[in-house]
Every structure is written in C-alpha cells, then in structure tokens.
TrEMBL record, chain B:
<feature type="transmembrane region" description="Helical">
    <location>
        <begin position="238"/>
        <end position="257"/>
    </location>
</feature>
<comment type="subunit">
    <text>The complex is composed of two ATP-binding proteins (MlaF), two transmembrane proteins (MlaE), two cytoplasmic solute-binding proteins (MlaB) and six periplasmic solute-binding proteins (MlaD).</text>
</comment>
<keyword id="KW-0813">Transport</keyword>
<dbReference type="InterPro" id="IPR030802">
    <property type="entry name" value="Permease_MalE"/>
</dbReference>
<dbReference type="Pfam" id="PF02405">
    <property type="entry name" value="MlaE"/>
</dbReference>
<comment type="function">
    <text>Part of the ABC transporter complex MlaFEDB, which is involved in a phospholipid transport pathway that maintains lipid asymmetry in the outer membrane by retrograde trafficking of phospholipids from the outer membrane to the inner membrane. Probably responsible for the translocation of the substrate across the membrane.</text>
</comment>
<feature type="transmembrane region" description="Helical">
    <location>
        <begin position="143"/>
        <end position="167"/>
    </location>
</feature>
<keyword id="KW-1133">Transmembrane helix</keyword>
<dbReference type="GO" id="GO:0005548">
    <property type="term" value="F:phospholipid transporter activity"/>
</dbReference>
<dbReference type="InterPro" id="IPR003453">
    <property type="entry name" value="ABC_MlaE_roteobac"/>
</dbReference>
<dbReference type="GO" id="GO:0043190">
    <property type="term" value="C:ATP-binding cassette (ABC) transporter complex"/>
</dbReference>
<keyword id="KW-0812">Transmembrane</keyword>
<dbReference type="InterPro" id="IPR053408">
    <property type="entry name" value="MlaE_Permease"/>
</dbReference>
<keyword id="KW-0997">Cell inner membrane</keyword>
<keyword id="KW-0472">Membrane</keyword>
<comment type="similarity">
    <text>Belongs to the MlaE permease family.</text>
</comment>
<keyword id="KW-1003">Cell membrane</keyword>
Length: 149, 260
C-alpha cells in the first residue's frame, strides 16, 4: 500500500479517536461548555445533614437553582452548617423560606429543596435560612412506628 | 530429588532473569533521541497495521457487547421498574470497565500475537542480527515503532469501542425495547462524570496498551528462534497480556473507584 494512502488512513483513525472522545464528553457525560456564572452564598443549619455531599443539588419547585459548596460541623451547637451557592439570577428568595433535605426517588441521592415563604425581603449573600428540616431518618421512623407512636 | 529442587530453583531464576531482560529491553527501546524523518514513516506504517486493521474486530465486538448490555440490563431493571436507568448502566459499565478491558484483551489477541509472530520470525530468519551487523539498531528501527504504535492505538480503540457500545445499547433499548429516549440520555448524562469516568477509562486503556505492547514485542524479541519457539512465544503473549490486563484492572479499579 502506498505510503501516502497509509498516512491518510492513519490520520483518519486518529481523528476518529478524538471524535469518540468528544462524543463521550458532550453527549454521554453531559459536559456543557457553559461558564459557571455569578453565584451568591447562603447558609443553612441542620440537626442531621444526612447523605448530603458537596456539589449536591439545591432546587426550588423542582428546578435546580444552585449547588452545595461545603458542609462543616459547628463545634458549639453541634449542628451541620451547609454553605450553598445559588445562581445570581435567582435573587428573590423570601427570607422566611425553609431549606428541607429531600431524597430523589427511593434509592436516590439527597438534595436540598427550598420551600418559599411569604416575606417581601429577599435573601442576600451571607444570609442563613432560619427554618430547616433535617434528613428523614429511616431507623427513627421505624422505631417510632414500632413503639406505638 | 535434589535435581527436582534444583530445577525448580533454576526455573525461578529464569523467570526473574527474563523480567530483568524485559526491563533492559524496554529502556533500550525507549531511550535515545527520536529521529522524525526516519522514525515517523515507520510509526505510521505500524499504526496502520496495529490500530486501523484492529478496527473491524473492535467495532463489531463493541456493537454486540453494547447490544447485549442493553438487552440483559433491561430484563433485570424491569424487575425494579427502573428501565429508565438502562442508559446509565450501559454507559458506566462500558466506560469504566468493559471498554478498556475487552479492548485490551482483543488487542492482545489480534495485534499482540501478530507483533510477537512478526518479530519472532525476524529473529528466527536472522534479520535482527544482520541489521546489527550493518550498524542499524534493531531496537530503534524495528521494535520502537511497534511499541509506540501500541501505546497510541490502544486508547483510541478503547474510546471507539465505548462509543460504538453505547450506540448499540441505545439501539436495543430505545428502538427495540421502547425505553423513552429522553430519559435514556438524561439519566446517562446526569450520572456519567467526564473526569471520573471517561478520563479514568482512558487512563486504564493507556496503562493496558503499555503492558500489552511491551509483553508482545518482548516475547517476540526473546523467543527461541525456531518455529516451535515462535508459536510458544505467541501463546505466551496472549496469556500473559490477558492475565496482566485483568490483574491491573483490579488494582486500577481499587485505586480509582475504591473511595479509600
């Protein structure tokens, strides 16, 4: 086979490999070339953070509005302090909204759901949710049920 | 009795000596200044015979493995009512495990055995020693292009395998078994991480390519220069490459996905 034809075919082979990597990146793993955009940080204190992990979802009415940045333990009150990054475009969250830990599906991962309040003032950078609901603990529910509520 | 123990010891020392020879062989092949004008055409010819000619078996195997994953996965997941998770299952299985490992096994069987037989025949017909007589280093001229072609071709073949497998799985689940196409792709995209899954799979295939190519060219270079020797070297290439790939796969999986 002529050298030139071989070179062209090998070049096509390498291009096919790079194209496969691109397909895997964009179509299969859903990597979007969007910039992260502006966000502001709010905090929430939970008695039990459950299975929340950094980069977890924060949603409102089922729409993802942000992600969890970090979860630390407050050594004085022994509560979990969760720092969340909310998209800057969602800047009308009432200050009396509550943060609830929910599970997506039966075996799914846990995420934070913001349930809107009625206040006119909105949450800003550095604010904290004063009303929170911790993760549902299956063992506690079962023992409550078994001991006759 | 003493003779048996002595021969056992001799076999052990032979294995260790062989490992040492393979190390020196690798260093001798990879060291040295590359010469693009002479080396690149050789590399391209080897890439053609090692990579492009393996495409047929890789694509067909990838397609069928993807289709089987779709079929089996659908049967199992429908017991739990989670057919929509089939995309996630196919993609993660292929990207993390089956893509790199099955490609490496097929590569060892097809390209590895071909490399071993070719180099072994060159050694048996004295071509390698006559090259040395003429002052041409056979490691640089014959072995190094084949080694580098194996390193470069394996990750590309593994990526193509994964993509064709996912497409085959989509064909079976969405077109034939009726899974909703939107949730198929949405579940897959939300659970496949580019760095954690795709890149880890590529790293695995690079390691497997290194190991399979090294074993293949070394067995050819080190074989007994008779026809029986060549056939035994070809068998050893396939067996050792397969065992090494499966063993390394466990180690790499533990390191990458073990959450330690």
């Amino acid at each position: 086979m002529a050298q030139r034809t071989t070179e062209i075919i090998v070049g096509l082979f390498i291009i096919a490999g790079c194209a496969a990597l691109l397909v895997l990146a964009l179509q299969v793993s859903g990597l979007t070339p969007k910039s992260p955009g502006e966000t502001y940080t709010v905090y929430a204190r939970f008695n039990d953070a459950g299975g929340l992990t950094p980069r977890g979802k924060v949603s409102m009415a089922g729409v993802t509005v942000g992600s969890i940045r970090e979860i630390v333990l407050d050594k004085d009150t022994f509560q979990a302090v969760v720092a969340m990054e909310i998209n800057a475009t969602v800047d009308t969250i009432p200050t009396d909204s509550s943060a609830i830990i929910r599970t997506s599906g039966l075996l799914g991962e846990q995420y934070i759901d913001i349930s809107v309040g009625a206040d006119e003032a909105s949450m800003k950078q550095g604010d904290a949710f004063y009303s929170t609901q911790s993760a549902m603990n299956l063992e506690r529910m079962i023992s409550n049920f078994a001991s006759g509520r | 009795m003493i003779d048996r123990i002595a021969s056992l010891g001799r076999t052990g020392l032979d294995v260790i000596a062989s490992l040492g020879r393979s190390g020196r062989f690798l260093v001798g092949t990879l060291a040295g200044v590359p010469q693009p004008r002479v080396g690149l055409p050789l590399l391209i010819r080897q890439l053609y015979s090692v990579g492009v000619l393996s495409l047929a078996i890789i694509i067909v195997s990838g397609l069928f493995i993807g289709m089987v994953l779709g079929l089996q996965g659908f049967t199992i997941l429908s017991d739990y009512g989670s057919e929509a998770a089939i995309g996630q299952m196919i993609a993660l299985t292929l990207l993390r495990e089956l893509g790199p490992v099955v490609t490496a096994l097929l590569f060892a069987g097809r390209a590895g055995s071909a490399l071993t037989a070719e180099i072994g025949l060159m050694k048996a017909t004295e071509q390698l020693s006559s090259m040395e007589m003429m002052g041409v280093d056979p490691l640089r001229r014959v072995i190094a292009p084949r080694l580098w072609a194996g390193f470069i071709a394996m990750p590309i073949l593994a990526l193509i395998f994964s993509v064709v497998g996912i497409w085959g799985g989509m064909l079976v689940s969405v077109e034939w078994l009726g899974v909703f196409e939107g949730s198929f792709w949405a579940n897959m995209q939300s659970s496949v991480e580019f760095v954690d899954d795709v890149i880890n799979g590529v790293i695995k295939s690079i390691v497997f390519g290194f190991v399979c190519s090294w074993i293949a060219v070394y067995q050819g270079y080190d074989c007994i220069p008779t026809s029986a020797g060549i056939s035994s070297a070809t068998t050893k290439t396939v067996v050792y490459s397969s065992l090494a790939v499966l063993g390394l796969d466990f180690v790499l999986t533990a390191v990458m996905f073990g959450n330690f």
